[in-house]
Amino acid sequence: MPLFHTILYPTDFSEASVSAYRLACSLAEHHKCKLVIAHVLETPAAAFLGSGPLPDLGNWMKEIQVKLARLRPSDPTVAVDHVLVDGDAAGEIVRLARERNCDLIVLGTHGRSGLKRLLLGSVAEEVVRKAPCPVLTIKPREPASEVGPDVGR
């Protein structure tokens, strides 16, 4: 009996999500399960605040759809659903996990702390607290120059 039937991989297309993408694909391939790849649209604030020219939201959405469609596991036998939704990122991720009966969410995290986390919030933290299934958070690897000399000894 497979451990996972459906894995949700939400992406914001950031560097922080790349490692999570690789792991989500690997798990889906290994467990021969469906992979739901999702992006939550966050409409640019300039569209509502009147600061500067309005962005071309139609082209912006098309670009996002193209980026989303390009995300595919290397194994063509893995079933993939691409989902584009609009709303609060954490809330939509949790909703999708419930609606799609996901067994696991694989989510990249930016690893913010302190004031940045307080001001910007943490999507990953909220998803972990509210998700109906386990959540695997993947933080970006530190560049080799930031790793101390005693690491790995």
Give a structural overview.
It is a single chain. With 153 residues, this protein is an alpha/beta fold. It has a domain at 32-44 and 56-141: HUPs (Rossmann fold, 3-Layer(aba) Sandwich), CATH 3.40.50.620. It contains six helices and five strands; from the N terminus they run E-H-E-H-H-E-H-E-H-H-E. It has helices spanning 18-31, 46-49, 57-70, 89-99, 114-120, 123-130; strands at 6-10, 34-41, 80-86, 104-108, 135-138. Strand 1 (6-10), helix 1 (18-31) and strand 2 form a beta-alpha-beta unit.
Uncertain segments of ≥5 residues (pLDDT<50)?
116-120, 144-153
**What is the rounded Rg?**
17 Å
Q: Which descriptor suits the 3D outline? A: globular
Q: Distance between termini?
A: 39 Å
CATH architecture of the domain at 32-44 and 56-141: 3-Layer(aba) Sandwich
Assign a percent range to the helix content: 25-40%
The CATH topology label of the domain at 32-44 and 56-141 is Rossmann fold
Q: Number of DSSP strands?
A: 5
Mean pLDDT: 82
Q: CATH class of the domain at 32-44 and 56-141, anyone?
A: Alpha Beta
Number of helices: 6
Main pleated-sheet profile: 5 strands, parallel
Q: CATH-wise, what's the superfamily of the domain at 32-44 and 56-141?
A: HUPs
- SSE order in H/E notation? EHEHHEHEHHE
Class of secondary structure makeup? alpha/beta
What percent of residues are in strands? 15-25%
Strands of the biggest beta sheet: in what spatial order?
Answer: 3-2-1-4-5
